[in-house]
Amino acid sequence: MHAIEKILAKNSGRTEVKTGEIVTAKVDFAEINDLYLQTIYSFYEMNGEKVWDKERCAFVFDHYAPCPDIKSAANHKEMREFAEKNDLRFHFDTNCGVCHQVMPEAGVIYPGMIVVATDSHTTTHGAFGALGTGCGATDMATILMTGELWFRVPEIIEVRLEGKVPKGVYPKDVILAVLGKIRADGAVYKAIDFTGSYVESLNVAGRMTICNMAVEMGAKTAYMQPNQDVLDYVNARAVRPFEVQYTDEGYEYSESYVFDVETLEPELACPSSVENVHTLQSVITEGKVMLNQGYIGSCTGGRVEDIEIAAKILKGKHIPPMTRLVIVPASREVMMECMKKGYIQDLMDAGATITTPGCGACLGAHEGILAPGEVCITSTNRNFPGRMGSTEALMYLASPATVAASMVNGYITDPRDFV
User: Fold this and answer.
1) How far is CA 27 from CA 79, 113, 135, in A?
2) Average pLDDT along the chain
3) Using an 8 Å Cβ cutoff, are 320 and 289 in contact?
4) Whole-number Cα distances in Å, 65 to 35, 60, 97, 278
């Protein structure tokens, strides 16, 4: 069996599972973000009284942090009351950050677990050798009551990434290249196992970026075999011991895609689809793409490494007049580390706006949303119409390095000119 199958078998009390089977498995951690107040209502509608385990579930207030309107403030109030009533050990309020960043930081994510959250980008946690997937409010209410959920054992495909990337190419470029080939519907309800020498050498932040965007291909979950960086990270933070690491020797995938990352260039997902991927150079060749805004943040591109490269590119420079650069650290911990290292100060000196850790404008609610006709280059994960504000705005997805380089000039620019 594949590692994902072994996790499902273990948590469902079975010795073996097979592709296509429906199993009922124990959930090791459940997370509800602040879009899903309905979870509480569904919990009580199904006669829920207390959550199944106060140590294994949490609310994260990240999509509306801090609250931009009365409705979201009222939602937070009800969620806080539920968390307090159930004496939840973990609660991440508006001062914490994006759910997929704060959960690993808090030590609740570890290899071999099942984590379910009310967010499609829960595939991020495959970076730690966990099975992470999203669900809706009713399914989450079921988990809060029972600690279990049904799962269909997914077909598993391999994306093998071999080699070392050239200068100026980052994990975001790699996953965009993969997306451009597999497309937005190429892995619907499948699991993606990212393998190869590039993955084996990748740090935690890079792994999270790649697994995060597996869902943009329709994937139900993602997986990477933990490397030493992951084990060091988890061991330093884990709130409970984890039992095993699963390996996949001899497993036969239903499909395999192989990429030589040494041949890659900086990539862009052009408006208005994440699969509309082109090399940055091919876009530049067609003419200048003028920008109104650059954006660095979210569960895809708001970690220390992302803000660091932006600060290094922009240090001593300044963004052009009438443009704006919005920086949204993925968590409080990220922001404090970036302040300690001087990155926040350098970016503010360059004219950037720094906002509260969280999802920010990635969902089009506040902190940097776009007006009709505006063009934004962003390190986030989706660029369909209306994602960051107006349905008449255009978004280009890129690495944080490309965003920063582009904001030096006010038009899309190759980061290799700066690194």
Assistant:
1) 21, 8, 12
2) 97
3) no
4) 11, 10, 8, 33
β-pair type (277-279, 267-269): antiparallel
Q: What is the pLDDT of residues 119-150, one digit of tens each?
A: 999 999 999 999 999 999 999 999 999 999 99
Side-chain half-sphere CA neighbours of 287 within 13 A: 1
245 pLDDT tier (thresholds 50, 70, 90): low
Contact 79, 95 (CB under 8 A): no
- pTM, entire model: 0.97
- Common-topology check for domains 3-259 and 267-417: yes
d(CA 377, CA 293): 7
Helix%, strand%, coil% for the chain, nearest 5:
35, 20, 40
The conformational region for residue 217 under phi > 0 = left, psi -120 to 50 = alpha, else beta, is: alpha
**Among 120, 146, 194, which Cα is nearest to 382's?**
120
Burial (CB < 10 A; 0-12, 13-18, 19+), residue 52, is: middle
Cβ neighbours of residue 359 closer than 8 Å, sequence gap 6 or more: 62, 63, 65, 98, 298, 299, 328, 365
Measure the CA–CA gap between 375 and 294, rounded to whole angstroms. 9
Q: Would you place residue 248 in the very low, low, confident or very high pLDDT band (cuts 50, 70, 90)?
A: confident
Please give the helix or strand (H or E) that residue 395 lies within, else none: strand 394-397
d(CA 158, CA 197): 13
What is the residue extent of each domain of the chain? 3-259, 267-417
The DSSP output letter for 248 is -
* 8 Å CB contact between 154 and 190: yes
- For residues 16 and 9, the answer to whether their CB atoms sit within 8 Å is yes
Does residue 272 register a pLDDT over 80? yes
Report d(CA 139, CA 86) in Å as an integer: 19
SS3 assignment, position 97: strand
Nearby residues of 187 by Cβ (< 8 Å), 6 or more positions away: 157, 214, 217, 218, 219
160-177 per-position pLDDT tens digit: 999 999 999 999 999 999
> Is domain 3-259 annotated with CATH 3.60.130.10?
no
The Cα 59–Cα 78 span in angstroms is 11
Q: Does domain 267-417 have CATH number 3.30.499.10?
A: yes
